Amino acid sequence: MTQSGTSREPGPHPSGDRPLRVALLSYRSKEHCGGQGVYVRHLSRELAALGHEVTVFSGQPYPVLDGGVTLEPLPSLDLYNDADPFVAPPVREWRDWIDVLEVATMWTAGFPEPLTFSLRANRALRRRLADFDVVHDNQTLGWGLLGVKAAGLPLVTTIHHPISVDRRIELAEARGLQKLSKRRWYGFVAMQAKVARRLDPILVPSRSSADDIAREFGVDPAAMEVTPLGVDTRYFHPRPDTERVPGRIVCTASADSPLKGVATLLRAAAKLATERDVRLTVVSRPKPGGPTDRLVDELSLRDRVEFVSGIDDTALAELVASAQVAVVPSFYEGFSLPAVEAMACATPLVASRAGALPEVVGTDGDAGRLVPPGDPEALASELAALLDDDAERARMGAAAWRRVQERFTWRAVAELTAQRYASTIDTVRGSGQGPARTAPDRAPHL
Predict the structure, then answer these.
(1) CB 137 within 8 A of CB 125
(2) CATH 3.40.50.2000 domain span(s) along the chain
(3) CB neighbours of 152 closer than 8 A, spacing ≥ 6?
(4) Given a cut of 70, is residue 435 above it in pLDDT?
(5) Which H/E stretch holds residue 248?
(6) Is the Cβ–Cβ distance between 213 and 159 less than 8 Å?
(7) Residues whose CB falls within 8 Å of the CB of residue 289, separated by 6 or more in sequence, listed in order
(8) pLDDT, tens only, 299-348
(9) Strand order in the sheet with 21-26
(10) Quick one: 205 exposed, middle or buried, by C-beta within 10 A (0-12, 13-18, 19+)?
(11) What is the average per-residue pLDDT within 75-90?
């Protein structure tokens, strides 16, 4: 039996459909870049629609939330904001020792936010022990979470995928001193692994992700519970009245990182451009003058490739629904919301045979085509075949939409997540644990 086969699957609701007071933690929640903001927004909305009271604790960038959900800001020093990144505010604006730790870690080339947010969350929650029935951490995995657990608050954690995979791929791409700086930047991953091993339950989006977390972080598979992610079908759905633009290929990449495989897609697009009229739209913001930007010029694709960012769900859904083919060329995905969003728009999908993508798309080729990661020749071949076959694209799109309706809606995700909350609360109460009578600001000795 594989490790993922020993992770827990959905079971009966242990305590009925009772309303819960939920504290949902996310150390940064940018709406259109990375999956954290997307996850927080849609899960919190659907939990609230089920009758639960949801308070989102977040550092900057703060999430966009729907009605019925409360935002509790836990501000950092916002050292990585888009307008002025890696610049610390004047010392007079530092508030406490956590701010000092945050700046010191940045100045020594590390990434402090998972740790510093967890310390702020521990402090805030220990002052409000009576306000919440359960705490749900969205992949912060900082030392402060052990303080929350020690205070007796039932704690559920989501790990989308182990960031050690990102680290390994980026280190393989780095050269010279870049390797040293990357190692330092990803120093927080060792903390995340140690914290993860002391948490239960851990929600994971796929069996593939459960396998990877067990291998990379040393987490007991029995502590993990498969809880897929969803897609907002209010926006992402088939649009029969939207005309597909001939030759349009769309890719949503949540970060300008080698992990996302955009370079592979650009090379495939360059090959296709020699034989047909194709237009590639990448939903991402590459760094000006960075590797992705330079590769566009090296491949003479400047007039064939468009990068867009900061668009809302309506515009993104319309863009995906207007494409003839969508691509997810990643070297690894713990789930892949972009893949599910494309499927929900009935847009034929070509994805890498990597991480959880085969699990999401299906391995039979019915709802999407799978190609080896990092192989531009194979990717170009599949894209060309689909662009030339109107009937196959229509068939695949219809099959993809059926698969989404069966497996990947946010309401189903929220219902299953609420079951995880209830069973965790029952476990903590049954063990005789409960919120501590005293609530010191500091985490326990670690």
Answers:
(1) no
(2) 4-230+410-430, 248-407
(3) 129, 428, 433, 434, 435, 436
(4) no
(5) strand 248-252
(6) yes
(7) none
(8) 999 999 999 988 988 999 999 999 999 999 999 898 898 999 999 999 99
(9) 69-73, 53-58, 21-26, 134-138, 155-158, 202-204, 224-226
(10) buried
(11) 93
User: For 38-61, how does the pLDDT look when each residue is reduced to its tens digit (9 = 90+)?
Assistant: 899 999 999 999 999 999 999 999
Q: pLDDT tens digits for 139-174?
A: 999 999 999 999 999 999 999 989 998 898 889 888
Q: What type of residue is 266?
A: L
Q: What does the buried/exposed string (b/e) look like for 94-110 if buried means 16 or more CB atoms within 10 Å of the residue's CB?
A: eeeebbeebbebbeeeb
Cα–Cα dist 372/131, whole Å? 49
Residue ranges of alpha helices (H) inside 77-187 are 97-107, 113-126, 144-150, 163-173, 177-185
Q: What is the mean pLDDT of residues 275-285?
A: 94
Class of domain 248-407: alpha beta
* CATH number for domain 4-230+410-430, candidates 3.40.50.2000, 3.40.50.150, 2.60.120.10, 3.40.640.10: 3.40.50.2000
Structure tokens at 158: 């989501």
